[in-house]
Amino acid sequence: MAYVPPDWSTTMDTSHRLACAWLLTGAACASMAQEAPRKTDLEGYTVEADQASYRTESVGMGPLGDIAPIETPYSVQAVNNDLARNQQLQSVREAFRFLPTVQGENVRPQTRGLQAGVVQNTRIDGLNIAATTDYPIEQFEQIEVLNGLAGALYGPASPAGVFNYVFKRPTDAPLREVDVRYNSRESGLAHADLGGHFGDHDRYGYRVNVLDQNGPGYVDGSRLARRMGTVGFDVKLAERTVLENDASYYHYTATGFPGTFALGKGVTLPSAPDPGRQGYGQTWGGDDNITRILSSRLKTALNDDWSLRAGVLKESNDRRSTVPTHTLTTPSGNYTTTAATTTYSYDMIVSNMVALNGHVDTGPLAHDLVVANNGFYWSRYTPFSTGAVTVGRASLAHPVRFDEPTNFPRFAHRYRSMNTRQQSLSLGDTIRFDDRWSTLVAASQSWLHVRSYNKQGRTTSSYDAHGISPTASVMFKPVAGQMAYVTYADSLQQGDIAPAGSANENESLKPYRSRQWEAGYKARAGTIDLGAALYRIERPYAYLDAANVYANRGRQVNRGIELTANGDITRDLTVFAGASLLDPRLYHTGSTATEGNQILGLSRVVYDTLFEYRMPWVEGLTLTLNVNHATKRAGDFANTYRVDGYTVADIGGRYQMRIHGCPVTFRLALDNATDRRYWANVSPASQNGYNAAGSATGTLGAPRTVRASMQVDLL
User: Fold this and answer.
1) I need a labelling partner for 337 at 20 to 30 A (CA). Which of 155, 466, 517, 639 fits?
2) What is the largest CA-CA distance in the chain?
3) CA distance 316 to 133
4) DSSP labels for 462-527?
């Protein structure tokens, strides 16, 4: 095995960056301390004063607006900025680990065992974005997940739920927050979060987040670099009108980390190998993604009962992936390595939203009305030169670092291969009969236009479709702070695309429908929020038949139970926990080998429990423990074997104090403390499982990792 010398230039850059950030922070803090009156305690700061609160006070429900979770007839969860900072999270994908309903770490997020579409299910502030790239969590105030169908509110989408990320907004009080972080192997990070208002009557507000991370990863020769700049700028146009604007740039580079493992026909997924071993990743192979976002939203209250919101967002998502794929060809672990994902390397999305909300009383009934429009224009681009490049052959026992291929495609030389336009008009009414009973009825009329193109620009397949997606809920509040509900939803969804290698490759399948029943109970019991939901989802399932034609023929039925508990158990003990029990099965497959079987890659039980204990006898010290568990998963569609489950524990703590009058928080964490080797994600080759071999692909979980940080509030 070739010896790879340490990248001393990177190491020196990292050390220099951390040292400079530390010195600048200390100097600024000392300067501020001379000007500001010294505070004698830790009161008045979100993190330092009290036990950090991870309870969710409101979530964005699209056209319905911001609503308290206990008022919604859906299962919703959120990870807020406090939790992200205290767990030192670096991406939205890491935040999903704390939500057991969001199972797996695939490219696209998923809930209830169903993968999201590329654009339809994922949003920023209610506006569609692409899910197929990395998003830095440092620019968001909250990550929200609505589990299950929501087509009546948002338009056609996979029944995988709605993933909504909320940009940070200007702060009421000036914010000058700086943090420097260290990850294992001298990877450093510097981040600043600035906010406030200025002008007459605080007419203008700003929020600026900048981030620079560059350093080695947990494999010798690997590298992770993240550079982000996000600016939020609000203008109060009138007493009840505000214009919110955001601009975001993010460059994400990750090379040298283990690639994806795929299976040849008749080969099963072995026990997870050591992810830190050289050769499973390639120093030249990985992701090089640039994401640019511009958005603007107008919010105005027309009077005490009516309000109007309108927004538009444009995103460009440039992905140049050379992540290696190791296809296991023998049970003994021999594999062939390929690289370069070229199906789609560039997405451009323009999304829009308008919502008019009002309150009307008709006799004894109170109505919360909504009329909304939302949709997107989405184009995908593919390199003219496509297809994976074969790199070499090796084995799990003897992985090899290969030379970089010279025939990678030119990612920037591409053509428009697909265009989708989707627009929906939604009407809804929440009717309150009395203090206990209410109902929500809503429906959206949607229009879909899908086109596929070849390299010459000619249309190869197309369809225009329209349809209605309705939903209805009945809600009952037995006492204040508690609610039971039953919800039915029926949603249209854009059809899948026939995969490469199929007889009808790149054909857009006709749209189809999913249906869901859900019953739930929510309660705010003192300082803790509890939730339970029982559901059944059914949707069409597409697969390749014996003639190699990709079409909808089967049915997927997922039944499950979700349990959540978030809040303070005692004054010093906080919990953020959830569990998902899932029974996902496949029917009408045309094969006795797969009829009624478990869906590939889905654990039947997943839970995540985060405990935080504030040491009462050591002021400012909090200890944390997070346990993430997933049971065994079906390794293929025929259910001939199971892939091992896993339990991963993260331990850590934080200490809050003052230095020269500035609140300072030190954090230290040991992720995957037992250094468990595990398959973090097992999935079909696509959301509908069209893998011709009928088997799984797998990605490895990260090994034991140290994270440390120092956060300073300069005001």
Assistant:
1) 639
2) 81
3) 11
4) EEEEEEEEEEEEEEE-SSTTEEEEEEEEEEEEPPPBPPTTSTTTTPBPPPEEEEEEEEEEEEEETT
* pLDDT band, residue 106 (cuts 50/70/90): low
Q: In angstroms, rounded to a whole number, what is the distance separating the alpha carbons of residues 78 and 83?
A: 10
Q: 75: closest CA among 535, 474, 479, 427?
A: 535
Three-point CA angle 214, 220, 222, nearest 5°: 40
In which residue are the tokens 């169903």 written?
A: 114
Q: What is the residue type of 257?
A: F
Radius of gyration for the alpha carbons in the chain, expressed in angstroms and rounded? 25
Angstrom distance (rounded) from CA 124 to CA 472: 26
> At 456, which amino acid appears?
Q
Which residue is associated with the tokens 């008749």?
266
Task: Find out whether 479 and 139 touch, Cβ atoms under 8 Å.
Answer: no
The residue among 518, 658, 603 whose CA lies nearest residue 102 is: 603
- Contacts of residue 220, defined as CB under 8 A and 6 or more positions apart, other chains included, come to 4, 6, 278
Distance (Å, whole) CA 189 – CA 10: 13
13 token code pair: 């850059």
**Residue-wise pLDDT tens digits, 350-391:** 999 999 999 999 999 999 999 999 999 999 999 887 777 899
In one letter, which amino acid is 307? S
pTM for this one? Answer: 0.90
Residue pair 559/539 in contact (Cβ under 8 Å)? The answer is no
Phi, psi of 17, rounded to the nearest 5 degrees: -65, -45
Task: Count CB-CB contacts under 10 A for residue 239.
Answer: 9
